[in-house]
Write a structure and sequence with these properties.
The chain is mainly β. It has five helices and 13 strands. It has one domain.
């Protein structure tokens, strides 16, 4: 019986295609492409550099020098009043830092400042430790227009910094203070990379109770050359700002004051004009005939 040569060729090609194994993959099949431009999608990531300066309380370098140039009007008035009532200050510096601050940043050992670096996906967060654990803390907090006292045991202070892309070049930071306190507790939490369609996987977590003060959240948008500054009002006592940003100097009765500086940038452009490169250990293989 005669067969159509073209139909026979197509049949053999289909069979060959179905029997390819992983070793027969061609290089160009491994390269993701978008349209005709050959662009590669890269994950969006944010890079943070965080420096914490520590100086004697009311020191000019982290008080008058910083807040004389920091723009606090970037924070909405209602939020700014809430921050002030709790002894906190948040602002944005554009351009170069004051000379007094640069001297503190460039100080030699033993006063050398070692910035911390964070890199995480767009929309992720970093926890910045600003206050070491203290056995007992009695704070005067202001919430919803009323002031009240609250006691904490084994309390430490943190700053939750959530970052994401904004516009073509900028990064938005959401800054929320937290108090971690109480005994270490055992709990179960979902694995962060567990799929939504797969059975939930859990892990055992050890940690303290976390009190996130969301009503004191402040949001800033940083462009190139801008720095977020977070500090306290040194005249306060027993408020949240004093708890987070002041501490006694070791082996001394002198009180020290802290200031947090945050630089933010995009560590990936998300859509990059990157040349296509297949993994080095793969070689092109012709399909079997």
């Amino acid at each position: 019986m005669n067969r159509n040569p073209l139909a026979l060729a197509l049949t053999l090609t289909a069979v060959a295609g179905c029997t390819l194994n992983r070793g027969d993959l061609r290089r160009d099949a491994l390269v993701p492409r978008i349209g005709g431009g050959g662009q590669v999608i890269e994950p969006k990531r944010v890079a943070l550099k965080v420096a914490i300066l520590s100086r004697p309380i009311r020191d000019d370098a982290i008080n008058s020098a910083v807040w004389g140039v920091a723009d606090e009007q970037m924070i909405p008035p209602e939020t700014r009043r809430m921050l002030e009532a709790n002894g906190l200050r948040v602002g944005l510096i554009s351009g170069e830092l004051p000379t007094e601050v640069e001297k503190v940043l460039q100080a030699p050992a033993p006063h050398k400042v070692e910035p911390a670096h964070f890199d995480f996906p767009d929309g992720g967060f970093a926890l910045v430790s600003v206050c070491e654990s203290t056995p007992q803390a009695s704070l005067l907090l202001s919430r919803e227009g009323r002031a009240f006292g609250k006691d904490y045991a084994d309390a430490s202070g943190w700053l939750r910094v959530t970052a994401g892309f904004e516009g073509a070049h900028d990064v938005t930071l959401r800054l929320v203070p937290e108090i971690h306190h109480g005994p270490i507790q055992h709990s179960f939490g979902a694995l962060p990379n567990a799929g939504t369609l797969a059975p939930r996987q859990f892990m055992l977590k050890d940690g303290q109770q976390e009190e996130t003060l969301r009503e004191l959240a402040a949001t800033l948008t940083l462009g190139p050359g801008q720095v977020a500054v977070i500090g306290c009002r040194p005249e306060g006592a027993r408020n949240l700002g004093a708890f987070l940003f002041t501490h006694p100097e070791p082996n001394s009765d002198r009180l020290l004051q802290k200031l947090v500086l945050i630089w933010a940038s995009r560590s990936s452009l998300g859509l990059a004009e990157t040349p296509h490169r297949a993994p080095a250990d793969l070689e092109p293989v012709e399909p079997p005939k």
